[in-house]
Amino acid sequence: MKSIQTTSYEIHFKDLAYKSLDTYLKKEKFSKIFLLVDENTHKHCLPHFLGQIQYDGVIEIIEIKSGEIHKTIESCMGVWRTLSELSADRKSLLINLGGGVVTDLGGFVASTFKRGIKFINVPTTLLAMVDASVGGKTGVDLDLSKNQIGTITFADMVLIDTRFLDTLPNNELRSGFAEMLKHGLIQDQKYWKQLRQLKQLTLNDLDELIHHSVAIKNKVVSKDPNEMGLRKILNFGHTLGHAIESYCLDNEDIITLLHGEAIAIGMILEGYLSSKISGLPITDLKEIKETFKATYPNVSFSDSSKKQIIELMQSDKKNSYGQVKFVLLESIGQCQIDVEVENAIIYEAFDFYSK
Ligand code: GLY
What we know:
The longest helix is centred in the middle third of the chain and has 21 residues, at about 205-225. Helix 7 runs antiparallel to helix 8 and helix 10 packs across helix 11. This protein is about 50% helix and about 15% strand. The strands form three sheets. Strands 1-2-9-6-5-3-4 form a seven-stranded mixed β-sheet. A two-stranded antiparallel ribbon has the order 7-8. The protein has a two-stranded antiparallel sheet with strand order 10-11. The protein is of the alpha/beta class. It folds into two domains: about 5-170, Rossmann fold; about 170-200 and about 225-355, Dehydroquinate synthase-like, alpha domain. It has helices spanning about 15-30, 40-45, 45-50, 75-85, 100-110, 125-130, 170-185, 190-195, 205-225, 240-250, 260-275, 280-295, 305-315, 345-355, and strands at about 5, 10-15, 35-40, 60-65, 95-100, 120-125, 135-140, 145-150, 155-160, 325-330, 335-340. The chain contains 14 helices and eleven strands. It is globular and about 60 Å long. The protein binds glycine. The site of glycine has 5 residues, from loops.
């Protein structure tokens, strides 16, 4: 599968990924190589990864705890300390092998350690393959606010091997698939139609589809790496989605949602806002609701939970001058950015979701 060239690094797929990594490691002559994993990728992904590369020097393994609740500055402190204790220097490399928590946190640790060391992302979940590992966003959560602390720093290379998905639970696949559906909604109507017609996700289909999603994301990020304008479209569904995800993480009386599951709800809600404000046709809105409702968990929101979600949304890092800004759809494949929405319409959107 053809590599994707971004403005500053390459994204390689499958076997070519490991060949490219070996060539790169030979060429760069790093002082030390570190590999960040969580307990799941340590067990399920590390043996495959090490079995694929020829490099026979020392690789120091650093493990963090898995899960969004550990995407914190405290986990970073542990990794920074270990790097220091193991004498990492500015010519050291960090390879992040894991899902979005590992690639975001590892990227942040690398981008700040000794003012920045090189890092490589090897995503092992669908979500990290199509979104988190690509595009330079690194960071951690601050209490309930997602990705509140971070940098935009590009990896030196991203390696995508879909064989890691063999052992990925279904809900994790579904979570990543939501970001792929988002790519269709914001940029490519034909791709949206292709994805919604899939009866089942097979690994064979996924290779091509992941490549297409990464290409869409890369096209957007290349034009606007620092999210001054166009890149904001990648946040469709995320303004409400992130608030829902945080709310569910913090409340035991409601199911915990994976990122993509929360974003799927966010896309129905923001689809409704789009139909009210930016001209999204009702038929498209119905199609969006039907598609996400067919695959993603249905959550019932009490009046008090809606209120708290709206409050959480007000602390989103995408806000400026105290204003919550939405990305809305004009049609499938076309977006508007920086749209302000009255709370009354957001409450209506929750009613539309529940009906
Ligand atoms: N996940 C959205 C972005 O990378 O901009």
